[in-house]
Amino acid sequence: PEELISSTYDIAKQFYVNIEDRQRYKQILEKNGSVENFEFKVQRKDGSQIWVSNSTRAIYDSNGKIIRYESNVNDINERKLAEMEMKEINQQLEEAIVNANQMAVEAEAASMAKSAFLANMSHEIRTPMNGILGFADLLLEEELTAEQREAADTIKKSGENLLSLINSILDLSKVESKKIELETTPFNVESLILDVGELVRTNLGEKPVEINCQIGDIHTNVLGDPTRLRQIITNLTGNAIKFTHEGEIIIGVTTEKEDEQEVTLKFYIRDTGIGIPKNKLKTVFESFTQADGSTTREYGGTGLGLTISKKFAQLMGGDMWAESPAKENLPSDDSNTLPANRNPGSVFYFTAHFKKDVKSSQLPAPLNEKDLEGKTILIVDDNETALTVSAEIVKRAKMVPTLAKSGEEALDCLKTAKSAAGTQHPFPEVALIDISLPGISGYELAGELSAMTGGSTKMIALSGNLFAGASAESKNAGFSGFIPKPVRPKVLTDLIRTVLGSGEKQPEEIVTQHSVKEAVSHDIKILYAEDNKVNQLLGKKMFKRMGYNHTRIVPDGLEAVNQIKKNVHYDIIFMDIQMPNMGGLEATEEIRKWEANGSPYGEKNQDANPSAQPEHIPIIALTANAMKGDREMCIEAGMDDYLTKPFKREDIQSMLSKWVSKTEMAPRACEKIKILLVEDEQKMRNSIVRLLKREMPEATVMTAADGIDATAKLASFMPNLILTDI
Question: What stretches of 462-512 show up as alpha helix (H) in DSSP?
Answer without folding.
Answer: 470-476, 489-500
